[in-house]
Write a structure and sequence with these properties.
Layout (H helix, E strand, L loop, with lengths): L1 H6 L14 E2 H23 L2 H10 L3 H7 L12 H21 L9 H7 L2 H14 L6 H42 L4 H27 L7 H21 L2 H6 L5 H21 L3 E4 L5 E4 L3 H6 L3 H22 L3 H7 L25 E3 L6 E3 L9 H19 L18 H27 L8
Parallel strand pairs: 1-5
Antiparallel strand pairs: 2-3, 4-5
Length: about 450
Amino acid sequence: FQLACCCGTAACSLCCKCCPKIKQSTSTRFMYALYFILVTIICCVMMSTTVANEMKTHIPFYKQMCKGIQAGEMCEKLVGYSAVYKVCFGMACFFFLFFLFTIKINNSKSCRAYIHNGFWLIKLIVLAAMCSGAFFIPDQDTFLNAWRYVGATGGFLFIAIQLILLVEFAHKWNKNWTAGANHKQMWNGLLALVTLILYSIAVAALVLMALFYTRPEGCMYNKVLIGVNGGLCLFVSLVAISPCVQNRQPHSGLLQSGVISCYVMYLTFSALSSKPPETILDENNRNITICVPEFSQGLHRDENLVTGLGTTILFGCILYSCLTSTTRASSEALKGIYATAETEVSSCFFTQDFSDAEEHVEKRGGQTVVYDEKKGTVYSYAYFHFVFFLASLYVMMTVTHWFHYESAQIEKFFTGTWSIFWIKMVSCWVCVFLYLWTLVAPLCCPTREFSV
């Protein structure tokens, strides 16, 4: 059965019978995510000077091996930002080809669907061949310069999709619980409680950033940006409950603006943490770092611990974003298709995707597999691969510090750079703009029908 999974159309599963049953659609997405994680780890290793030095020290005949595989005298062609660009080029091409291959698949019984859901060993070999083949592209300098701009465009688009889906999530959350309030007053209480918690978090974050990231002298960037972003949160909150918006969108309220405010505060904190440190001379003519919390300077002394933990959390979040962005509801939300208020069913876990598709269970000596796509596909195959294609570009740009690629190292992953700072800050403003547009669009275009 495991051979059928690797070289045939069978769904992958674990060998242990005691494992809980798994759906075919989940198994497929898990395997693609596993490939994504594998290549991401390889990219992190390639950007690590610590790993490179350890390999030189502990691998016998390291120099001869590097010359044998034509990777340079000390394998310099297999490390650094250029190597990451090439590996991510192979991974991006892999997902983009599958995006083209799976367009308009609505039936899991078609030949293309079988290829999408199986042949995992063959696909792993193809992925490895693509990543390796990128190292043999002629005219490397032209390729790297052009691919950098493609990567930046894809990375920005990945961020934009996540922001759009965040706004959609906020609206869907409010609409779901508001629909429940029509039947049970409990939902009104939950709405009020959660809204209060969200705004409490946002206000607390604003106050803490003002305390730890500013000082009476200097820190002008921090003061202006904290004030501007706090003002934007207040502005969108007032717009959300204004009478003109309420007349056109009765479901608009403080819950959505609370979600957006918390996310804006998170991005503001993340941006301020990513800003290059400011230094001034003290009375003894020594350089001291200002505009950052004093305890954070101590944390950055153990660079390996901070980098390892932080990188794991970051790429875990990227993977989570990929998987949650590829549901049928998310792909339809990007097209402007939403559930109507009449079809909303109130639930604390309203994001769970329940399917009424007929399930066929097969037991073949290992983990039980539920074939949940007999009647039709549970998610959009093409959109799934497109999101992972963009995520590949986002990982490439993130690991190589975006536009500060020449000095990038994974050990200095959390060292502040202006490019990362402005990317996060602009993302913050784009998020506010997208949410504000969903509020004022029905007023600007009264003849059009908007549904959020």
